[in-house]
UniProtKB/TrEMBL annotation:
Protein name in UniProt: CaiB/BaiF family protein
Region of interest (Disordered), ranges: 335-359
UniProt-listed SUPFAM superfamilies: CoA-transferase family III (CaiB/BaiF) (SSF89796)
Gene Ontology molecular function: CoA-transferase activity
Keywords: Transferase
Keyword Ribonucleoprotein: no
InterPro entries: CoA-transferase_III_domain, CoA-Trfase_fam_III, CoA-Trfase_III_dom3_sf, CoA-Trfase_III_dom_1_sf
One Pfam family here: CoA_transf_3
Domain of life according to the entry: Bacteria
Ranges of biased composition (kind: Low complexity): 347-359
Length: 359
């Protein structure tokens, strides 16, 4: 059986009017699962092409590119043709631009009542046009304020967590509506996604009045010990959630006492002092080798090059590009990792097909 024949989303067509990361990431995941994704690009190309070829490839493999000026009559007419024969349209732009270009369900339902329209914005379709890049959203939702050491500045992670999370959420909403069998508008905002992902942090404040506190080395609020620890060589992530993990760790490390989760939480400083001193006697790599066979959640801190070199099964080739493949593994299905599209290549393919059919 070919990869295409067994693709979970074979036969699904999605139109993307995507910019930079969040929107293109959402539709690339759908393309990896077999959906036909037509990427609408403005004259001159989508802006992420200017960032670099590898950047563009990491978010747009497996798609087709079609250049349309959506502000023109011809562009609107061509978009209407595509909508009539598609399952969904996904766009990430400012709300005013989405409405001005007619990329909402209300504007497109006359061409296809079953079309699913997904709008990805900073603060919602009715939330205004304030710029909403990833770092801005992390600052606005409390994520930056709760990240970092207690005496240090607010901290941002080393990757675009808000954009990627919103892409995942938008893809889920799009598929949920397709499964429902009805068309409609899906509204996904970066702000709402990040607030949603603060789940237990937000609940603790809303129900118990407990404001988030930073702990050194990224320590968890509830579990002890669960954080990064310096070792004789490198840093170690250790995550002890229950008493069974603690018993196994304490036995290997030669630590006594602190038998229950409640006791470890109440005596946090004492526990961390003992564990820190113990882990300093060996390297992070050695501790990982010693603790992993015991089933303890542990990992030496690695660089990205080190992590990629240790997981060749996660890497794929798409044309001339080496990329990280889909994180969704489906039995019996292997994605067809095609290269990112050349600019406006879909238009040429359509013209060629029409010419051949008329000859």
């Amino acid at each position: 059986m070919s990869a295409c024949a067994s693709a979970p989303l074979a036969g699904i067509r999605v139109i993307e009017v995507g910019v930079m990361l969040a929107g293109p990431y959402a539709t690339m995941m759908l393309a990896d699962l077999g959906a036909e994704v037509i990427k609408i690009e403005p004259p001159g190309g989508e802006i992420s092409r200017q960032v670099g070829d590898s950047y563009f490839a990491s978010l747009n493999r497996g798609k087709r590119s079609l250049c349309l000026d959506l502000a023109s009559a011809n562009g609107k007419a061509r978009l209407a043709e595509l909508v009539a024969d598609s399952h969904a349209l996904l766009v990430n732009m400012k709300p005013s631009v989405i409405r001005r270009l007619g990329l909402t369900y209300d504007a497109l339902k006359e061409f296809n009542p079953e079309i699913v329209c997904v709008a990805m914005t900073g603060f919602g379709l009715d939330g205004g046009d304030d710029p909403a890049f990833d770092y801005v959203i992390q600052a606005a939702t409390g994520v930056a304020a709760m990240t970092g050491d207690p005496d240090g500045p607010p901290t941002l992670p080393g990757y675009s967590s808000a954009d990627n999370s919103t892409g995942l959420t938008a893809a889920l909403g799009l598929l949920a509506m397709i499964v429902s069998g009805r068309g409609g508008q899906v509204d996904v905002s970066l702000r709402d996604v990040m607030l949603s992902q603060l789940n237990y942090r937000a609940s603790a404040y809303l129900n118990d009045g407990a404001e988030p506190r930073r702990h050194p080395n990224g320590a968890h609020s509830y579990y002890v010990p669960a954080q990064l620890f310096p070792t004789a060589d490198g840093y170690l992530a250790l995550f002890i959630t229950h008493d069974g993990f603690w018993r196994s760790f304490a036995g290997e490390a030669g630590i006594s006492g602190f038998e229950t989760m409640a006791e470890r939480a109440a005596r946090r400083d004492e526990v961390l002092h003992v564990v820190t001193a113990t882990l300093a006697t060996d390297s992070a790599a050695s501790w990982e080798k010693r603790l992993k066979p015991l089933g303890i959640p542990v990992a030496a801190v690695r660089t990205l090059p080190e992590a990629l070199s240790e997981t060749p099964e996660a890497l794929v080739t798409a044309g001339d590009f080496r990329l990280v493949g889909s994180s969704i593994r489906i039995a019996g299905y292997q994605p067809d990792y095609r290269p990112p599209p050349a600019f406006d290549e879909y238009a040429g393919g359509q013209a060629q097909a029409r010419s051949q059919s008329s000859s």
